[in-house]
Write a structure and sequence with these properties.
With 328 residues, the chain is α/β, with parallel strands linked by helices. It has eleven helices and twelve strands. The protein has a seven-stranded parallel β-sheet, sandwiched between helices. Strands 7-9-11 form a three-stranded mixed β-sheet. A two-stranded parallel ribbon has the order 8-12. Helix 5 links the parallel strand 5 and strand 6. It is globular, with a radius of gyration of 19 Å. The chain binds nicotinamide-adenine-dinucleotide. Nicotinamide-adenine-dinucleotide binds next to helix 1, helix 4, strand 5 and strand 7.
C-alpha cells in the first residue's frame, strides 16, 4: 500500500505521519508513506524528525500539476492536509488561501482521478458551517463560512464533492473542530498563550473572550481521519469533534493555572474581524458508522501539551520568530 500525505510537515499532518509510520494504525501497517509538503512558514521537517527514515519526503507544491502527477503514481490512499490554515492571516491577505486551499485541492483531485487513486480523504474544518448559537451542526448543514480561510476551505469541500459526483472519485471529507497538542505552530491560540505565559509575557484575548470552541486533541483527530481512510463511505462527509466546549476565557483560565500565572497576564485586544461566536459539531455520524469516540481527556491532554512546550523551547522559539517575520 502506498499512502500520499500532503501537508505532512505541518501540525496535524506530522502527527498523522508519526503515528502511521510507527504502527498506530494496524490496517495500514507496512505502508509506503510519501509526504508532499511545500514547507511554507508553517511546515518543518523537524516535526517529522522522530520518524526520519521511515517515509519519503518530497518538497513540492500541491498547486503544481506536474509534481502532483508524479507523486500520485502508484498511490492507493491520499490524505490531504496541506493548506494555509491561520484565520488571522487570511484576514490580512487571502490570495495564498485561495491558491493553496482551492487550486491546490483541485490539482490534487484531478491528479488522483488521473492516477486512479483508490481513496482520497480531504481534511476540512467545522468553520465551513459558520457560527452557531445553540445546538450542533450535522454534516447536512448549509455552508456559511465567514472568514476568507473558511470560505476557501468550503470551496475545496465543494470541489471534493463535485469530483465524487461527476467522476466517481472515492473522496470522503472530514470536518473537525479546533485541534490542540504538541508541534502546533506558535501562532495559534494555545501555543501562543502557553509560550508567552512560560516566558512571563502577556496574552492577547480577543473581544469579550466569550467565543466558544470545541477542543479536539490532535491524536483523536488523526484517529478519526484514519477511521475515515479505512472505512468512510465515498462521497460522504464526517464531522470529528473533541467534546470539550470552552469559552476563550475559560481556556485562558486553564492555561493561566497550568503556568502559574494570573489575570494580570491577560491583555484584552480588539476582537478579530468577523469572529465566529461558537462552533459545535455533531459527531453522531462518525460515531455510529465508524465507531469514533474521542479518547484524550481534555485536562490530561492540555497538561501534557503545556509540558511539551515547556520541554521543547528549542522547537518553538525559532518558529515564533519565523511567524513574526512571515507577518511582515
Ligand atoms: N489546526 C486546526 O485546529 C484545524 C482545525 C480544522 C481543520 N484543520 C485543517 O487541517 C489541515 C492541517 O492543519 P494544520 O493545523 O496542521 O496546518 P499547518 O498550517 O500546521 O500545516 C499546513 C502544512 O501544509 C503545508 N503547505 C501549505 N501550502 C502548501 C502547498 N501549496 N503545497 C504543499 N504543502 C503546503 C505547509 O508547509 C504545512 O506543512 C488543514 O487542511 C486545516 O485546514 C485544522
Amino acid at each position: 500500500m502506498r499512502v500520499l500525505v500532503t501537508g505532512g510537515a505541518g501540525f496535524i499532518g506530522s502527527h498523522y505521519v508519526r503515528e502511521l509510520v510507527s504502527g498506530s494504525y494496524p490496517a495500514f501497517a507496512g505502508a509506503e508513506v510519501v509526504v508532499l509538503d511545500k514547507l511554507t512558514y508553517a511546515g518543518s521537517e523537524t516535526n517529522l524528525a522522530p520518524v526520519a527514515g521511515k517515509f519519503e519526503f518530497v518538497r513540492g507544491d500541491i498547486c503544481d500539476p506536474s509534481v502532483v502527477a508524479e507523486q500520485m503514481r502508484g498511490v492507493d490512499v491520499v490524505v490531504h492536509f496541506a493548506a494555509e490554515s491561520h484565520v488571522d492571516r487570511s484576514i490580512t491577505g487571502s490570495a495564498d488561501f485561495v491558491l493553496t486551499n482551492v487550486l491546490g485541492t483541485q490539482t490534487l483531485l484531478q491528479g488522483a482521478l488521473n492516477a486512479g487513486v483508490g481513496r482520497f480523504v480531504h481534511v476540512s474544518t467545522d468553520e465551513v458551517y459558520g457560527s452557531i448559537e445553540d445546538g450542533s451542526w450535522s454534516e447536512n448543514h448549509v455552508l456559511e463560512p465567514n472568514s476568507p480561510y473558511s470560505a476557501s476551505k468550503a470551496s475545496s469541500d465543494l470541489l471534493a464533492r463535485a469530483f465524487h459526483r461527476t467522476h466517481g472519485l472515492p473522496v470522503s471529507i472530514t470536518r473537525c473542530s479546533n485541534n490542540y497538542g504538541p508541534y502546533q505552530f506558535p501562532e495559534k491560540v494555545i501555543p501562543v498563550f502557553v509560550t508567552n505565559l512560560i516566558d512571563g509575557r502577556k496574552v492577547p484575548l480577543y473581544g469579550d473572550g466569550l467565543n466558544v470552541r470545541d477542543w479536539l486533541h490532535v491524536d483523536d483527530h488523526c484517529r478519526g481521519i484514519q477511521l475515515v481512510a479505512e472505512g468512510g463511505r465515498p462521497g460522504e462527509i464526517y464531522n470529528i469533534g473533541g467534546g470539550t466546549e470552552l469559552t476563550n476565557r475559560e481556556l485562558t483560565e486553564r492555561l493561566l493555572a497550568a503556568t502559574g500565572r494570573d489575570w494580570s497576564f491577560v491583555e484584552p485586544v480588539q476582537d478579530r474581524l468577523g469572529h465566529d461566536r461558537r462552533y459545535s459539531v455533531d459527531i453522531s455520524k462518525i460515531s455510529a458508522e465508524l465507531g469514533y469516540k474521542p479518547q484524550v481527556d481534555f485536562e490530561v491532554g492540555l497538561a501534557d501539551t503545556v509540558e511539551w512546550y515547556r520541554e521543547n523551547r528549542a522547537w518553538w522559539e525559532p518558529l515564533k520568530e519565523r511567524a513574526q517575520s512571515a507577518k511582515g
